[in-house]
Amino acid sequence: MIRSLKGNSGYWRVLIASAIGLNIGFASQSYIALTIGVYVEGYAMPLRQAGLFGSTELIAMAISALLSVRLEKRISLASLAIIGALLAGLGNVLTAFQQSVPHILLLRIMTGVGAGIVAATVNASIAKSADPVRLYAHSNAVVIFLASCFFITMPYIYSTFGYSNYFLAYGLILLAGTPLLAWLGSSAPSSGHADQLIPAPPSMSSLPTRWLVYLGSGFLLWLSYGMIFSFSERLGVSLGIAPTDIGIVISVGTLVGIFGTLLAALVAGKTDSINPLSFGVLALGICYVVVSQALGYFTYSIAMCLFGIALFFCLPFLQGEAARFDPSGRLASLLAGLMPLAGALSPVIGGWLIESLGYGWLGIICFFIACGVSGATRVFRLKVSKLV
Question: Averaged over 273-298, what is the pLDDT?
Fold first, then answer.
């Protein structure tokens, strides 16, 4: 198990495989801001159509992630993750050689299907570990580094060598990390959660309510995040910032998120996870407003940095809490399916809100969503406490 491997090469292999898996599995949403920009600038798509393409890819990701839950008992997690990563990588590579809109759309669906498989299996693997919150936090720290490199290099690649090379480089990066997924842990559900202030298992009759409340909170949180982040690149353009500078800002904003994930690793196990999750979500909601109200390069840069820190502080608790309530990994896999579904809706809803009300109101609406999620997690904890 992860705990017994901690401090030796076994733990590091699982950590690297988990980080690579999270990067591949959530790449479709993590990099959607740049992808939408490539659609608009490189393929002359209207903003709404670009958002629809992004949404279609994420819907495919969500469906495949939810269906993958049924496959996890028949195929090893590592093998299933490798199959998904190959689909995602090849989908991107083949996109680079297409100009036909229908063909591009089909390949984006293929990419989404592969990413969803990886997202579900990696989340199930981490959920089965002895200390999922810390493993999520450490894995996210690696993901942050990889994502920051992506945001720095990609604008340079497509602005220098052409927009189609964005997808070529994107796909090759995913394929390069695919073999490392063989290191994914497949440990049995651990009993090592007992020192992390976990409530006693509820009765079967109460289990669906707990799951629905938690999944609903995760869905709404990811929806609000997606509506802001999907158009963060477009917001920078609207402020007159050069695409390469926007890439650097998003990269730095992602990189400083490591402080959020390391703080989460320090807090994990020392307090009830719902407390830091509730306050972290509220802080993220404030960041939504700050980002949407940016007035220029300086305020945009500061806002994206605060956004990154708050987001990556919340993620380990959001992901890890699902693992605590269901160490078998089923709830984590379902969450991995709902997150891209929320991400699929966010470009469409966000694009409509921006065109109708502007960036400022988008931030305010997302702030109120975050407030609702923060409050829901408090009520959720109170309900769980009564079951102990």
Answer: 84
* Dist. CA 38–CA 95, nearest whole Å: 12
Q: In this structure, is the dihedral angle defined by the CA atoms of residues 74, 79, 84 and 86, taken in order, positive or negative?
A: negative
Query: In terms of C-beta density within 10 A (0-12 exposed, 13-18 middle, 19 or more buried), how is residue 279 classed?
Result: middle
Residues 6+ apart with CB under 8 A from 263: 313
State how far the Cα of 219 lies from the Cα of 340, in Å rounded to an integer.
9
Specify the long-range contacts of residues 9-17, CB closer than 8 Å, at least 24 apart. 13/183, 14/129, 14/135, 14/183, 14/184, 14/185, 15/135, 15/138, 15/139, 15/142, 16/142, 16/180, 16/183, 17/78, 17/180, 17/181, 17/182, 17/183, 17/184, 17/185
* pLDDT at position 185: 62
> Among 239, 355, 369, which Cα is nearest to 304's?
239
pTM score: 0.74
Which of 185-189, 196-200, 243-247, 280-284: highest mean pLDDT? 280-284
**Cα 188 vs. chain centroid, distance in angstroms?**
25
* Of 24, 15, 13, 222, residue with least CA distance to 118: 24
